[in-house]
Design brief:
Layout (H helix, E strand, L loop, with lengths): L4 H4 L10 E4 L14 E2 L5 E2 L3 E3 L8 H9 L3 E4 L5 H14 L16 H11 L3 E6 L3 E7 H4 L8 H4 L13 H11 L3 E5 L5 E6 H9 L14 E4 L4 H8 L4 E4 L7 H13 L3 E7 L2 H10 L3 E6 L9 H5 L5 H14 L6 E4 L5 H9 L4 E4 L1 H4 L8 E4 L2 E7 L4 H4 L20 E5 L4 H19 L4 H7 L1 E4 L2 H6 L15
Parallel strand pairs: 4-5, 4-15, 5-10, 10-11, 11-12, 12-13, 13-14, 14-15
Antiparallel strand pairs: 1-19, 2-3, 6-7, 8-9, 16-17, 17-18
Helix pairs in contact: 2-3, 3-9, 11-13, 14-17
The chain binds xanthosine-5'-monophosphate (XMP).
Amino acid sequence: MGFRDKFKNADNALTFNDVILLPGWTTLEPDEASVKTQATRSVSLNAPFIASPMDTVTESEMAIALARNGCLGVLHRNCTAEEEVDMARAVKRAEALIIRDVITVNPETTIEELLELMSEHSISGFPVVENGDSLAGIVTWRDVRLADKALKVGDVMTKDVITGTEETSLEEAMGILHEHRIEKLPIVDGKGRVRGLMTMKDITLKGTYPDALRDEEGRLICAAATSPFDLERAKALDQYVDVLITDVAHFHNKNCFEATEKILKEVEAEVIVGNIGTYEAAEDCLTKLDGVAGLRVGIGSGSICSTSVVTRAGAPTLYAASQAADAVKDYGADVPVIADGGLRNPGDIAVALAVGASCAMMGNVFAGCSESPGRLVALEGRYYKEYYGMGSPRARRKRFVQDRYSQPSKAISEGVEGWVPYRGPVTDIISEFVGGLKAAMGYVGARTIPEMWDKARLALITERGAKEIAPHDIMRPGPNREP
Ligand code: XMP
C-alpha cells in the first residue's frame, strides 16, 4: 500500500453532529417505547444512562441517585483505594432488604463513642453484641440523646430486643416494626447471633423507588472504576461492587490486556473494559480476554478532552460505537457497547443506539446535577458546577489517575477544566432524557433498543444542514444579550 492509499482507504470517523436519524414508518406512540437496556451481561438498566467515573461527576451520592432511578453511576478512582471502597460501601449500605454489613457496638462502648459512630455513619441505632456477635440489646438515638456522655451503652440499651430470623419476610418485618413502633429489626440465628438487620427506612425506600436497580439482597447495584494495573484496588472493591470498569484512555495495549487478565481471574464482579475505539480493539477484547462483560468505547470526544487536539489521535464516540458493535455482532457476543464521551442530549444517545450501542456514558450532563461532587458556583447571575477532565492538570494533581494516560503524556495535559450549567436533581435530567429518547424512537418506529439497532437509518448531514436543523433566523431572549 502506497502512502497515498492511506487517504483512499481512510474511514469516515463520523460522529453525532455529522448524522441525523431518518424518520421511519411507525406504529407506536413514543410513550410505548421501552428504554430498558443492558449495561453488562447481567446488569439491566431501566434507562440507558451511565455517569462517568470522574471526580466532578460520580461519588456515592450520584451513584445512589442513579441506581434508585434505574441507571448507573461509576465511582471514580481519583482517590485512595480505601476512599473508593468507602464510597462503594456507602452505596451498598444506602438500602437493603437485610443489611449484612451491620455495624454493631458492645455494652462497654461509651455514649460519647456511640455518638461519634452515629454521626460518622449517619446511623441512628445499633445492635449491641457481646462475645463477638451474640445479641445483647439495641441502642438508638432515643436512648442516648439526653444521657450522660460518661455512661456506657450497657447502661441505656434496651435489653428485651424484638428480633426476626432469616425466614422473616418483608411483609412480616413491616408488621412487626409497625406493631412495636420500632425502626430496626435485628435478624438472629438459632443461637442468638446477629446475622443482619432490617430497617423501616429500607422497607419504605423499596416502595419509594420501584425502578431502582437492586441486587439479590435488595442493595443498590454499584459500579466502580479501577486502573487495570491496580489489582489490589480491584480486589478490595470486589467485596462491594457488582461491576468494575477499567479506566484508561487507550485500553488496546499489551500491558493493559495482561493486567486486566489478572483482574478478570481474581474478581467476581463483572468487568467492563475500555476505552477502545476500533473494530480490531473490540475484536481483541472479545477474543483475547476471557469474560469481558461490556465495552466502553470512544476516545477523544469528551467535552473536556484535549487528547485529539494534542495528539491528533482519537476515535469519535459514534464511530467507535459502530466499530465495537459490529465486532460484537460478528462474534455473536452477548456484550453491551457503552458509548462514552461527547453525548449532550437525547438525540445523541438515539444515534449512538442506532449504531449498536446499548448505553450512553456521560460526564458533562451529570456534572451539572445537584448530586455531583463538583463545587456549585454563581457566575453573572447563573449557577454552574465545576467540571474537569481526568487528564487535566487539576485532576492529575491528586495523582491517582496518572496511569489513565501513557507515560510521555504525563508531561502534557489531555483534558481541560471549566464549569457546566447547573441542571438540578438527576431525576429531572433522567425524565427529560427518557422523554427525548422515546420521542426519537417514535420517529424511527422502534419499540425497544434492539429494534433501534435494526430499524434506525442514518443520513449524513453537511455543516450547513446542521445549522439549519438547529433553531435559526430568530432572535431569542437570553441573559447574555445586551439590549
Ligand atoms: P463528556 O462529553 O460527557 O465525556 O464530558 C465524558 C468522558 O470523557 C472521557 N474523559 C476524558 N478524555 N481527557 C480525555 O481525553 C480527559 O481529561 C478526560 N476526562 C474524561 C471519559 O471517557 C468520560 O467518560
